Amino acid sequence: MLDADAASSTLGIELVDVGPGAATATMTVTATMVNGHDVAHGGYLFLLADTAFACACNSYGPVTVAAGAEVSFVASARLGDQLTAVAHERTRYGRNGIYDVTVYRETAAGRDVVLEFRGRSRTIEREGDEA
């Protein structure tokens, strides 16, 4: 799925780990991602979290899409920050799932959380699947 994701690859997002219900992706904040306040635009941070979420919820095979998401911006990211998004499944029920994603950067003092994301997924039927 990620190989065909032009939005994520254009931004340099890399998938570094994936397993059942989990994924880790990274991205470096570039000059084109910084807004007029000299911090990373929230849309790019959301996109990184959403990419990790998508990889985690699609790790089981069937096509799964976002049904909704909520994000909390915890700290600003800045030009040159290397960000890591770690997605973990909280629960799956029927064709639905809930996933949490933490986006952070490493500092000398340890991990600095930038964003917390909760995504809701929905597995969709493919043509020929039964409802």
From TrEMBL:
<feature type="domain" description="Thioesterase">
    <location>
        <begin position="38"/>
        <end position="107"/>
    </location>
</feature>
<dbReference type="InterPro" id="IPR052723">
    <property type="entry name" value="Acyl-CoA_thioesterase_PaaI"/>
</dbReference>
<dbReference type="InterPro" id="IPR011973">
    <property type="entry name" value="PaaD"/>
</dbReference>
<dbReference type="InterPro" id="IPR029069">
    <property type="entry name" value="HotDog_dom_sf"/>
</dbReference>
<protein>
    <submittedName>
        <fullName>Hydroxyphenylacetyl-CoA thioesterase PaaI</fullName>
    </submittedName>
</protein>
<comment type="similarity">
    <text>Belongs to the thioesterase PaaI family.</text>
</comment>
<dbReference type="InterPro" id="IPR006683">
    <property type="entry name" value="Thioestr_dom"/>
</dbReference>
<dbReference type="Pfam" id="PF03061">
    <property type="entry name" value="4HBT"/>
</dbReference>
<dbReference type="GO" id="GO:0016289">
    <property type="term" value="F:acyl-CoA hydrolase activity"/>
</dbReference>
<dbReference type="InterPro" id="IPR003736">
    <property type="entry name" value="PAAI_dom"/>
</dbReference>
<keyword id="KW-0378">Hydrolase</keyword>
